[in-house]
Amino acid sequence: MNRRNFFNGAAATVAGAVAAASVSSVVMAALPEPVLQASPDTMPPLVPDTGRPYNPVVTLNGWTLPWRMNNGVKEFHLVAEPVVREMTPGFKANMWGYNGQSPGPTIEVVEGDRVRVFVTNKLPEHTSVHWHGQRLPNGMDGVSGLTQQSIGVGKTFVYEFVARRPGTFMYHPHADEMTQMAMGMMGFWITHPKVKAPLISEVDRDFVFLLNAYDIDPGSMTPKTMTMLDFNLWSWNSRVFPGIDTLNVRHGDKVRIRVGNLTMTNHPIHLHGHEFMVTGSDGGPWPLAARVPEVTTDIGVGQMRQFEFVADEEGDWAFHCHKSHHTMNAMGHNVPTTIGVDHRGLVKRMQKAVPDYMVMGERGMADMGEMEMQIPDNTAPMMTGSGPFGGVEMGGMFSILKVRKSQKPGDYKDPGWFKHPAGTVAFEWTGSLPDPARFKADTQGSTPLARPSPTTTEVQIRKPSGHSSH
Ligand SMILES: [Cu+2]
Fold this sequence. Notes:
Elements: H1 3-17, H2 25-28, E1 58-59, E2 68-70, E3 73-88, E4 91-98, E5 107-110, E6 114-121, E7 130-132, E8 156-162, E9 167-172, H3 177-182, E10 187-192, E11 205-214, E12 233-236, E13 247-250, E14 254-261, E15 267-271, E16 276-281, E17 284-285, E18 293-294, E19 296-299, E20 304-310, E21 315-321, H4 346-353, H5 367-370, E22 384-387, E23 390-394, E24 398-404
Parallel strand pairs: 1-11, 3-6, 5-10, 11-14, 13-24
Antiparallel strand pairs: 2-3, 3-4, 6-8, 7-9, 9-10, 11-12, 14-20, 15-19, 15-21, 16-17, 16-18, 16-20, 21-24, 22-23
């Protein structure tokens, strides 16, 4: 097939794939039919049935793109297109992504594979795909204007290279990047080692996700793409807590988690209950002497980290970004701190002038997790989620590592809440409580006057106006 015929065939298939039944086998031979995914659930690992074998990864709230072997070449078909992503139940966003979702599907190949990726552009503007971290011919690097022409609207381009280096990579546009990445265009790429490599461990579970961030006004659906730093939704694979699936593993499993950061700031990712070893980045596996145990690893902008541990402590372990504002959903930050301010009498007087006036945060913000405050439709509550002991008061980049003896090998289903052995949960002390000596002398400190009982106080009045971005 000469080059011109090849591209003609490609274009015909893009049109024909919609009505698959009408596509002739001759045309199908030219281009793999694009596979789309509509469900935001974490899909089970895609066990390879062609090509070299490997131990597949699991994409949190995502999936792996199926491929087709064509004369020894692994062929994938990515479709760049507008999508609607459910970021958490009750909140959907207009995004741009690939094959029905943002992020796009994970691509998994094996070191030494020749890979051909067809990219069809169904966006309203041109795009390109950059294969972050890969060794490849310069003209396959996907930088619009520099190494290739942009993929025009409605066009299909072909990228082809050998996956030379095993490791953890990602892909994203290198055309109008600011808009396209702010709209959710990105995906994960794993190149598995061909043979057992001394610096690459074999693991029982291998999770991957991308860090991304959006600025979506409460009640609206489309990210504000001009935002540079003040994002209000901090997400993993375009999901926010409680929409992020838990990472469910079997007690004793060796677990690897691979994370890439395509936001505009760094994220210290923190795991409870276990130490992990940072074993590599998008630069490759780290030498043993460079590995250190951590419980938090900071992932800079444009960086990837992979870390590994043996899940040998049963329980429901929090797993989150350690920037506390990144474990919240849409909120305004230009709200004064009112902790310790005595509002008694104020609300009534204010409401004479401003009928909707309300007070929030007088005792901290934890009420936000429980209160039935009116929020606009299609908005994720700022702090939410409930656990077996009450409100979790979280949002954003937060999930749970669930370690269970009862979890079957290869089973990724949520086992429910941990059943704590008797006597192993923090409990309330009900004995006598002697006053600490240091408080006795001082009654003029910052601690305010005793509060009136909640049933009589005006500061319970809460309405959204004036805080519409919460
Ligand atoms: Cu963060």
